[in-house]
Amino acid sequence: TEVSVIFHHTIDTYRRKNNPDAVLLATLDSLAWNGKNDVSESLLDTLIIENKAREICAEIYLVKAQQSFQKNNYADALRIGNEAIAKYPKYKRINALKNLKQEIQNPALFVNTNRLAYPETEFALQVNHRNLSGFTVEYYKVNLPAISPELKNQPAESFYKKYGKKISSQHLSLIRSDDYSFQDTVILLKAPQEGVYLMRMIPDNKAKTSIENFLYITRLKAITRALPGNQCEIAVLDAESGKPVSGAMISLFTEKKGEYQKIKTLTVDENGRVRLIQQNDYHYFTAEKNEDTAMPLQTIHKGSYGFSGNEEVRKRTTLLTDRKLYRPGQTVYVKGIAYSLQADTANVIAGKKHTLTLTDANRRIIGEKEVHTNEFGSFTTEFLLPSGGLNGEYELKTESGNALFRVEE
Q1: Distance (Å, rounded) from C-alpha 334 to C-alpha 331?
Q2: What range does the domain containing 335 cover?
Q3: Taking a C-beta distance cutoff of 8 angstroms, is the pair 70, 388 a contact?
Q4: Nearest one of 335, 310, 309 to 322, comparing CA atoms
Q5: Last residue of a domain, one of 79, 105, 131
Q6: How far apart are CA 106 and CA 113, in angstroms?
Q7: Are residues 261 and 282 in the same domain?
Q8: Nearest CA-CA partner of 401 in 346, 337, 342
Q9: How far apart are CA 117 and CA 404, in angstroms?
Q10: Residue 206: per-residue pLDDT
Q11: Is residue 290, in this structure, part of any structural domain at all?
Q12: Is 12 helix (H, G, I), strand (E, B) or coil?
């Protein structure tokens, strides 16, 4: 190619000028280009042997260490980096290797959790960590309504002083790996009483930053549906038992200049339901009863009502992933449930073959699996995300269903 010709001429020019350091650097650039940043390890080892007497050899070690790092072989990358640092401590770019070493050894903590939980029941923390033996979870009761605009922002230290009251703290232990790799685990915690809380997670080992999540602890769950005559129905249920909650109050809101303004308040009937005319002056609602006022704003989905007498059988596949946010190189665990719909009847589809594809943020196919449903109409599989993959929205898809998740470095 034209680029390869340019590299060849550049290397040849430096060789004629008797500049071996420039020859080596241009050679490494050429190899990286032709190998798409995956240079043969044996070729790099040969270059190390040929150039070991000169400090510029540290650049070969850097390429080798970076490739191991990108393949999640962190222990190898650290060993290679340490070898170069020991051999060429005064090389002018030795800090590049020291920075890579620091990145490998730095502690890291990522936590995902649902922002809604039921009082005094267990909820899950999905934890991804590296080089960390544990972290501390602190709970702060927040003296703000659940709809407060203050809850949209990342809390500053002043937020804790003004609105937060610390109510509990506990230390959680983690099992760290011996090879500096990221580990995934799920930790179950007990939710506090009803209310709005700020959960702060502070890593051990003096890690740089804490992680903060707002928690809304409520017994209430609200669902909406469209009805004929431009009506909408809201039903309030107990989120644990599914039983209707009578006497709950529904507050309707509109948004103006970032502030939520209450339009009206309605009371549900003995079946936990209330009907209203769909209007454009309100878009959100909350449900509360007595002291249970922690439900965050819910959107009123102003859909249309319709009925079809079509008896055609429609096939659907629901795809579920173990989380919604991943890092490059992590494993995506997938569960699928295949079923058929006919009028108001649903049946699982057992013994059916499905082709499951994974596409990246550019909608390029990066993985494909053939799966078969079991007797319950479900299947499980997994995909390993590429370590050097794109950030953005990825999609899992079958012929009758899909699921989206994000990948962020």
Answers
A1: 10
A2: 314-407
A3: yes
A4: 335
A5: 105
A6: 23
A7: yes
A8: 337
A9: 23
A10: 64
A11: yes
A12: helix
Is the domain of 132 the same as that of 90?
no
> Longest C-alpha distance within the chain, in Å?
92
- Across residues 295-312, what is the average pLDDT? 66
- Looking at the fold, whether 245 and 210 belong to one and the same domain comes out as no
308 within some domain:
no
- Tell me the two tokens of residue 31: 């190899």
Which among 125, 196, 188, 123 has a CA at the least distance from the CA of 155? 196
Looking at residue 79, its amino acid is R
Give dist(CA 143, CA 165) in Å, integer.
8
Same-domain status, 112 and 210: yes
Exposure string (b/e) for 88-125, b if CB count within 10 Å is 16 or more? beebeebebbeebbeebeebebbbbbeebbbbeeebeb
Condensed to tens digits (0 to 9), the pLDDT of residues 81-129 reads 999 999 999 999 999 999 999 999 989 888 888 899 999 999 999 898 9
In a domain? residue 307: no
In sequence order, the β-bridge partners of residue 6 are: none
Residues 60 and 21: their CA atoms lie apart, in Å, by 11
| CA gap 202, 207 in Å, rounded | 8
Residue 342: pLDDT band by 50, 70, 90 thresholds?
A: low
Cβ neighbour number for residue 249 with a 10 Å cutoff: 16
In sequence order, what are the beta bridge partners of 190?
A: 122
For the chain, the domain total comes to: 4
- Looking at residue 370, its amino acid is E
How many other CB atoms are found less than 10 A from the CB of residue 259? Answer: 11
